[in-house]
Fold each of these.
Amino acid sequence: MKRVSNMGPQYAGDNSFTKNARELQSIYRASFLNEHKCGLGPTKNAKNRYGNMLVNGEESGKNFILPSTFEYAKFRLLNKKKEETIDAYRLFNNMLSSMPLCFNLFHPLQEMLRTDPQAVTTIFKHLFPGLPIFKVTDIKIEYVPSPIHNYLGDKTAFDAAVFFEREEDEKFLLAIETKYVEPLGTNPPSNPSKHISFANTLSCFTEQGSDAVAANCSQVY
């Protein structure tokens, strides 16, 4: 990978994949976005600068491929519900975060669903040929179902939720976890009683699946 003079500081502790991704985003920031300064990160109160961090991404929108996705991100922050987990600084400024990745990937599909739902359905049929997808009906990003007290209350959200129907009008939800360089979370729930109760009540887990829930499996499970 060809380095550029103003790509900005890198992080010595990166694994090989993250190292390459950080360098690529640093070069993209400096050479393609013409953002010659890099920001603090990975969080708002961090003290170090990294090449993958933008400065004032809240104003420039340069962490998004489409202007409409930037507008949608601002709309979501303006109308953020108490239980939602959207981090504004991460969303607008961290070019290595899976959160803007999710917005960039699924918001165009959200828009396309309004104008050409059949095209979106075809896309997901090809992506998931093993699922009985007849019609995609909705796509949500950073989705927390409400009322929240009816659910697990584990302070997480669906990165993306794709709602679809099969030909017999049965309704399904396809939950998608997006990752870029972050490790897949393995933390067990602090109180698994709700998880176990839900698993038993829904009767949709195999015996092996129910045993995994009872053994404090991670939230991604």
Amino acid sequence: MSQQKEIEPPIRWVTDSWPNYTDKDGSGLYHELMRSVFHSGQELNVQYAPWLRALELVKSGNADFTGAMPLNSNYVMSQHIVLSQPISVLIKKAYLDSEILTQLPELVGVWRSGYRNELLSGELKSIVKGVPTESTDSGFNLVRHNRVDYLIDVRTILATHLAKQPDKLEFELVDIGSLNLYMAFSKSERGKRIAKQFDSRFAELKKSGKLAEIYNKYQQTLPSQL
């Protein structure tokens, strides 16, 4: 019996909406990647939810997978890195100091709800202080109006958002770390089967050159695997 027939449809993907990755119009790197992975008529249902809600749905088995995120023992993680990115802060140029990393413990930051615990390493987590917010827009406005000192996120997310702002020249992006991100699957037998299919198909797409085409389309570098 084929692996596809063993997985009862639909495959349930839950994700936050990120520009150039999971836009709600169906465009973006992750959308195109998933359409290539789950092919040959497999039914893939996409549900959009805030990041913390998406994690809970996968953890409880009410969705099959989400991501991308750093390695986490609460989930079955893909074997393949799907994104390697700097983690950055967006800060006003007027307040920018060349020693920003040493300044971080004294500054107040903002991040999307759930990101501090799920995205930051222990070292960064110990020096990043501040508050969560529900959206990149609200976080940017807190920086703009001097309510906080910086917004922290994956660099490409910040860069995409900044490029659309009329006052973009007032801000700077500074890399403070790096991330390897993976897809996260439910810790169930079903989740394990779907993760296995993802890894197998990801490897096939890489070998064929299709994966490089997808990443190049979105100006992303195909991650080097550990």
Amino acid sequence: MKRTLLLALAAALAAALTAHAVSAQHPAMPHAAMPPGAAPTEPGQAAFAALAEVVRLLDADPATDWSRVSLERLRQHLIDMNEVVLRARVSARPVDGGLVMDVTGEGRTARAIDAMLRPHAAELERMEAYAARAEPIPGGPHHLALARGELVGGHGR
């Protein structure tokens, strides 16, 4: 019963998120420019789209244990990503073999930087192409990311 309720709620959430994201954009769209019968297929807000996609993927997997799924945690992660990408200050400087980035912010942004950079540096470190670490500095973590081998200097600054 609990699993059925969770599946129903998750499916309803996915449908609602997708429908809301698409319909919320509908009145502002220039209808004359749209061919008859055409409708947007992508939600207008990336976090809604990400949540809906995750629910769809989990719902399609019969092995999903919904008692271990936290859509709220995913939502908080997406909020942190948004904070870092849109509100953090980044000062980048080239170093021998890569790039050093000081990523700083205040309040909610500083908390998001701390929540995002440490785990993401650890993920980059697992990749053969990169060496990465996040270290604290005043105002936010200091993120050091270095490329290895042929990738040195190959990615944008």
